[in-house]
Amino acid sequence: MFSNKLAIATMNYIAKTITILGIAPLLSLLSSAVYAESPQTIIPQTTSEIMAREGEAQKYLGAINSAQLTYYLEHSRFATKIEDLGIDMPSGSNTYQYHILEEGEEIRKIIITAKANDSSVKSYTSAIFLFSIGESRKAIAGICETIKPSIYPPMMPIAPPYPSIGVLCPDESHAIVEFDRKVTF
């Protein structure tokens, strides 16, 4: 039977070998195991469990962005409360707290955050920016994800210089392109 130190040393050796070979996904799976006091007990927090929790935030922010675009089309302004959007979702869960951040009287953008309640998952900030193009308007929506797990959402995303590209994410974050939305109205 392995001792706790031997198990940790073995895991470190495997992790270094995997890093050298460039097999990063396996490294994250190995490094996410949490050791309890007993040498025989390993409490896994698997990559798939973490991804499922992060997927919750991505799904909810995508739904909020879509609902905000619909709300804007109907009311010529963005909703300032999740409850106003008419979608069935919590303002928080065991994993995340969701907030709409008002930008004063600014009606050309809205920011929504998903702040992680624990440091094992990533946090998110989504934004919707409006552009006037001739007589029409275009809305660009996107979600930024912290590069590493964090209880702090990314700083405010930056409006793209042209409406043909997506939301620009600040340092220490990146865009989740499958949630990019471009709507002309």
TrEMBL record:
InterPro entries: Pilin_GH. Pfam families: Pilin_GH (PF16734). This is Type IV pilin-like G/H family protein.
